[in-house]
Amino acid sequence: MTRLEGEQVLMRIFIGEGDRWEKKPLYEALVEMLRREGMAGATVLKGAMGFGARSITHSDRLLRFSSDLPVIVEVVDSQEKIDAVLPFLDAMLEGGMVTLEKARVIRYFKV
């Protein structure tokens, strides 16, 4: 059983749905890398609308189909494990943003 209790780190990786890594969607490549590196888990969330540094709005509205909707990959794990994957992110991300914040974890999960 693996426990994540107490203070951990929440990492959010903000990218676009159209971003790629080695011919596959970047969010898929990130989840595969995070799994391979033994992270506790990862979740991919697709946004309905957003804009980034270039102020280009991307939306899923019927009349404004976008192939680059906002995507967030969330991971909660120890500071040490988060720090260990940051070099991978440096290599994989050409844009986007990564945020780190403290998270109080009150549950655990079975492996």
Automatic annotation (TrEMBL):
Gene3D superfamilies per UniProt: 3.30.70.120
InterPro entries: N-reg_PII-like_a/b (IPR011322), N-reg_PII/ATP_PRibTrfase_C (IPR015867), UPF0166 (IPR003793)
Lineage top rank: taxon: Bacteria
A Pfam short name: DUF190
Family: Belongs to the UPF0166 family.
Stated name of the protein: PII-like signaling protein
Native species: Desulfuromonas soudanensis
Lineage: Bacteria, Pseudomonadati, Thermodesulfobacteriota, Desulfuromonadia, Desulfuromonadales
